[in-house]
Amino acid sequence: MIRTGRFAVGAYSELAEGEAFRVRAGGIPLAVFKVRGEIKVIEDTCSHGQASLSEGEVSTEYCTVICPLHGSIFDLDTGEPLTAPATTPVERFESEVEDDQIVVTII
Fold first, then answer.
1. What residue ranges define each of the domains in the chain, with the CATH number in brackets?
2. Per-residue confidence (pLDDT) for residue 2, from 0 to 100
């Protein structure tokens, strides 16, 4: 069951630039990234091959992640796949940092 609301998912200061982690919030697996000092949150499961996107290679230059299973590249700002084999976007979630806590909003 998916719950809506605001969820604190981790400390901003503990997430290094260009790194990611997987967390469940509201019943949804999320991938949380730090790119150019900003937090980006997308659905963690690749829309093509069911791989964990938080385990993929992050590009801070292009603000993307490469799926570790089949190599699809996803835009972290939009969730859109930029290359095949994925053709369906992953969901993107709003986030903010409050007192060093990454807070994700699920609606």
1. 5-106 (2.102.10.10)
2. 87
